[in-house]
Amino acid sequence: MPGRASTLHVYQDLGLADSQPQNMPGTEWKTRNLNSFLWGLIRQDLPVVNCRLSNGQRLGIEEIRIGRSKLQMLVTVLTLGLWAPLQISWRCCRPVPQSGRLD
After folding, report:
1. Which of 24, 53, 56, 92 has its CA 20 to 30 A from that of 37?
2. pTM of the model
């Protein structure tokens, strides 16, 4: 996230260091801008709907990035937290490969 004033990056243990193909994320980054008002009393929630297989099985989230640009940080400070915009990005895990023996 270039140009970010602050960013938190949440990922699975050994996610960044373990770059084996089976451990790579299953989707590209998806990003949304969210807002909270009145110090979080009124907020936008983020339902993640793209981390599902076609049969409806849910997959986990591989990585999450939460950050604010300099402008978003300035708005938060100037409004004393009455309005706090931020940007959230995520990407999903790959499905677990099927394994086992056929009888």
Report:
1. 92
2. 0.70
Helices assigned H by DSSP within the chain: 70-78
Q: Cβ contacts of residue 59 below 8 Å, gap of 6+? A: 26, 51, 52, 53, 92, 93, 94, 95
With respect to residue 100, please indicate whether it lies within any of the assigned structural domains.
no
- The answer to whether residues 58 and 44 touch, using CB atoms and an 8 Å cutoff, is no
pLDDT tens, position by position, 31-85: 889 899 998 888 888 888 888 888 888 888 888 888 888 898 999 999 998 999 9
The residue length of the chain stands at 103
Structural domain span for residue 33: 4-92
Q: Which amino acid belongs to residue 14?
A: L
Q: How many domains does the chain have?
A: 1
62 within domain boundaries? yes
